Amino acid sequence: MATQFPTRPVALFPFLFARRCLAAAGGGRGPWRRVMLIVVVVAAVAGCTSGAEDMSDSPFAQRLKVAPFPEGLEWVNTAAPLQLSQLRGKFVLLDFWTYCCINCMHVLPELKKLEQAYPAGLVVIGVHSAKFDTEKDSQNIADAVRRYNIEHAVVNDSELILWRRFGVRSWPTLLLIDPQGYAVWGHSGEATFQQLDAVLKKAVPYYRKKGLLNEQPLLLAPKADRTTPTPLRFPGKVLADEPSNRLFIADSNHNRIVVTRLDGALLATIGAGTLGRADGDFATAQFQQPQGMALRDEVLYVADTENHLLRRVDLVAKTVTTVAGTGQQSRTAPPLGRSARPLATALNSPWALWIDRDDLYIAMAGPHQIWKMRRDGSRIGVYAGNGREDIVDGPLLPRRAYQSGYASFAQPSGLAGDGTWLYVADSEGSSLRAVPLDPRGQVKTLVGTSQLPAARLFTFGDVDGPAGRARLQHPLGVVYYDGMLYVADTYNNKIKALDPTDGTVRTVAGTGKPGRDDNPATFDEPAGITAAAGRLFVADTNNHLIRVIDLSRDNKVSTLSTPGLAPPDPQDPPPSEDGAADADRVSAP
Questions:
Q1: Considering the domain boundaries, does residue 397 fall inside one?
Q2: Which of 76, 304, 557, 569 could serve as 154's disulfide partner, Cβ 3.0–4.6 Å?
Q3: 101/198 same-domain check
Q4: Strands 319-324 and 280-281
């Protein structure tokens, strides 16, 4: 389900006018049929027209002229700003996205397939229209472009200029511009390669026959990636096990799990470090952007997020097997109130895991729900959440999807537990939730926005204090340790502590500014947190580091060193001569 921005279109008449003009274009159909296509406002169009060329037999009912991009915007992942005029003869697909959004993440691999299918006739441009304050920064967008392996140019629409110009209402939204510079099709919500390919398969032959399609390769070289290869690459989650003196690190962009001692000494790497979903031994098994982990005895469970799988790692036999998921993203609302066989059930971006006795709890970020699987592999199903993307307290599970009056989550991304409650870092609502392990109980919000009458997904901040006043910004990780909850307050670049008895929040470490210093401690979008032996271990994601906070020494921060750990082969692109690691961004004149 797409997340809607709480603003009205700039003008109602152009919205209705544009929708009428484009109604026959085929947008908004398929599994995400609730969302409609394109919304274009006066500033973006010159009217409903077919242009000078006779396009009476066009595959698109009507076309809307698109104005040039405004000047002065920053661009990422390209050596120079782009203008639509230089892209004449090409189809241009605008992807309105924001890098926190799980639905936007789901569209990116579909776009990559489309770019590979139409390497000469199509140019994709990401229009990054930020939801959170942190996402307005071009350096952070550049980090996200690297993290998501985006190959096309991205423009930073931090002030929502293009968003408003096109009347966009939700993330993600796609807009197709034809080779003559006219908007012809659009879609709001997730779209698959098959949907997008069907549109282009009808359009490309027509424009080719008219002589309007330029299929000569267009060299839009991205700015050289000047980041130095690092032993860890955007680590997402961490898991400490004090009895065995081990730390498990989801080395997410290296597609592997790294195992060390708590002092950082390297013990093992799990996975070949190449994209894939193969089972096998530690050297040959493959993952794709693994995130959360849970340990019981000598079995490690892994949320293999972009494969939409759950994996089981036998730490004694040193093997990896798949225990849940089909390898395909689920794109339909799952049935509620009943369970199914794990290996026959499609999953949707499992992000975090927690074990309680014989059950494995799963933060299923894609459908905004908490799932539960029996560890014997007998069944899996939804445990809590009606599937609405929201921050609403109440009973765990309705009889039908999206039914009001029941608990709603918004991209749950971190889990912890104390034997009675399952604590959830509910990232898109900037909230910390508590889910009862007794299914007769009700979900409650410890810190966050559930009591607000509106804008629950758009209220955030960096405020310590009592629960009613405290604010977080897109937290991705949580751990329960020694009677306290510690939160990776990701977009505030801080680690915070929450007393579950009274809801008071305080900052443990971090100045709020991005950085990688130990004193004073700074972080850069920390996403994972765990605890053992009086210390917090933090996945400092954008710094490609693991940081350690010593709770017994006035929260002193240090950086974990792991001698002998190297990037897998093949590595990231080599650094430039100066080895600098600044943002890949340029500004239009």
A1: no
A2: 76
A3: yes
A4: antiparallel
**Two tokens at 581?**
């690691």
Phi, psi of 175 (to 5 degrees): -135, 125
- In this prediction, residue 15 has a pLDDT band, given cuts at 50, 70 and 90, of very low
- Do 541 and 527 form a contact (C-beta atoms < 8 A)? yes
Can you say whether the dihedral through the CA atoms of 449, 470, 371, 544 is positive or negative?
positive
89 and 191 share a domain? Answer: yes
CA distance 505 to 499: 7
pLDDT band at 12 (very low <50, low <70, confident <90, very high): very low
> Containing H/E element for 112?
helix 102-117
pLDDT in tens, 417-432: 999 999 999 999 999 9
- Which residues form the domain of 346? 271-330+340-384
- Which of 209, 232, 252 represents a domain boundary (last residue)? 209
Which H or E element spans position 63?
Answer: strand 63-65
Write the single-letter amino acid at 498: L
Picking from 100, 169, 208, the residue whose alpha carbon sits closest to that of residue 425 is 100
Please say which residue of 181, 209, 237 terminates a domain. 209
**pLDDT by residue (tens digit) across 37-48?**
444 433 344 444
Q: Is residue 510 a part of any domain in this protein?
A: no
Which residues, including other chains, have CB under 8 Å from residue 470's CB and lie 6 or more apart? Answer: 447, 463, 464, 503, 504, 505
Instruction: Give, in order, the Cα–Cα distances in Å from 202 to each of 58, 178, 195, 569.
Output: 10, 12, 11, 41
SS3 343: helix
Report the C-alpha gap between 253 and 541 in whole angstroms: 10
Instruction: Give which of 144, 137, 119, 147 is closest to 217, Cα–Cα.
Output: 119
The whole-angstrom separation of Cα 463 and Cα 471 is 5
Query: What are φ and ψ of residue 48, in 5° steps?
Result: -90, 105
Distance of CA 526 to the CA centre of its chain: 14
> 128: alpha, beta or left, given left = phi > 0 and alpha = psi -120 to 50?
beta
Please, what is the average pLDDT of the chain?
Answer: 89
> Collapsing DSSP states into helix, strand and coil, what is residue 546?
strand
Count of domains forming the chain: 2
The residues with which 497 forms a beta bridge, in sequence order, are: 486, 506
Tokens 């990896």 identify what position? 320
Q: Are residues 168 and 317 in the same domain?
A: no
**Residue 432 contacts residue 472 (beta carbons within 8 Å):** yes
The residues that bridge with 353 in the sheet, in sequence order, are 362
Model pTM score: 0.90
Residue 555 lies in a domain: no
Residue 493, domain member (yes or no): no
Peptide linkage before 222 cis (omega within 30 of 0): no
- Residue-wise pLDDT for 141-189, tens only, equals 999 999 999 999 999 999 999 999 999 999 999 999 999 999 999 999 9
For tokens 């992000």, name the residue: 351
**Is there a single domain that holds both residue 24 and residue 161?**
yes
Q: What is the CATH number of the domain that holds 306?
A: 2.40.10.500
